[in-house]
Amino acid sequence: MGAVLRAFALVALASLLTAATCSNSGKNSAGSGGSPLTGSGGKSGSGTGGATGSGGAASGAMGNPAPGASFFIGANFWNVDWEGSSDYFQSGVNWSTTTNPWVPQLLTDLAPYHVLRFMDWNQTNNSNNPQAVWSTRTQKTATQKEPVAFEWQIDLCNRSRKDYWLNVPHESNASYWTQLAQLVYASLDPSLRVYVEWSNEVWNGSFPQNAYATSQGQSLGLAGSDPAASFYAYQAVRVYEAFEAVFGKGSPRLVKVFSGQWAYDGPCTNEVKALSDAKINPNKTMPDVFAIAPYISGTTISALTTAIPGLKSGITSNISCAAMASMPVISYEGGQDSYAASNCNLVQTDPAMHDVYTSFLDALVVDGLQGPFMQYTHTGDCWGLKVNTTDASSAAPKYQGVLDWLAAHP
Fold first, then answer.
1. Is the dihedral of CA 201, 30, 64, 232 positive or negative?
2. What are the domain boundaries of the chain?
3. Which residue, among 285, 76, 52, 55, has the nearest Cα to 188 in the 3D structure?
4. What is the pLDDT of residue 25?
5. Is the pLDDT of residue 1 over 70?
6. 330 strand-pairing partners
7. N or C, where is the chain less crowded by C-beta within 10 Å?
8. Which of 227, 215, 235, 214 shows the shortest CA–CA distance to 170?
9. Could you tell me which of 287, 305, 307 has the C-alpha nearest to residue 237?
10. What is the CATH number of domain 37-408?
11. 36 pLDDT band (50/70/90 cuts)?
């Protein structure tokens, strides 16, 4: 199903889960050019305002593949309140003193990935988001639910050696961006990258950030036929610049993410045009990658298999659009979506899903998508590679399919 329908499905499923008494089993929701982000470790404190923690003592090569240079895999995490905290965190954690709250199986399961994206953990698709205000963001010592503290997001990346994909809430301001950049710089292992994305799916009218961006774009009188796209570019480049001021301009540790819609390249066209406007982008700050969300949808194995060839047109049209700004095309989400099935988990755990997934990954590569491909999600009903962290690989054919595909494509 399309991204807008998927968004409505997430909202509907979230409402059902909120209304129900849920147990831990109830859940919701390039171009060919290489990336410039292939250099050695991050700056040694060269960014203005850079903190003096571990992030400031960078040396050596990056620990994961560079975005846009090859095909590799990452994963999104589902909302903790939908999935249940026990899928991620050990029971009985004293959050004031713990140094490792993570379920051991989760850490083991992250092995196939090179990037972790925390959109849901930051309540990115919410208005009046406490995570969007620096003084009200979730603290590291608080009981972790939605949203999850930035410090624990970073800790999971450090502990598992994965790059950090950070969704910056749309209601945050310039002071917040600087403080967040300093926190990441000080805390994230210097061999790891941070992917910085302002909000999520700003083109998507079912999310409040679209109305927010439309209103802001109109108020500022920004050029372009789509005020939301114009303001998206306006705000994104300012977030990039806030992070560049801390990490250093051109730092190989910083990945500036622009994103659009997989099935339609209209958002890409409007956003790329906006980048050339002097009012929107006075410093000519450019993103590093363009991200889309290639999904296959269907309520049966047959329908999902039939959907795979349909990936090509959306991927190739966005590749052509992004090439106008010299951006390789990666993904911010994607995967199998069987939300419309009467019991999506029966489809999700059908043994035939193994071959659906290996064929799906084959198609992404042939169609020209570069890495990372960011699976939505690692665990969770309808979309997850696993339903639960505790599921054995034998009960998670999508996850096993990813493992087998990666083994065949070293």
1. negative
2. 37-408
3. 55
4. 31
5. no
6. 291
7. C
8. 235
9. 287
10. 3.20.20.80
11. very low
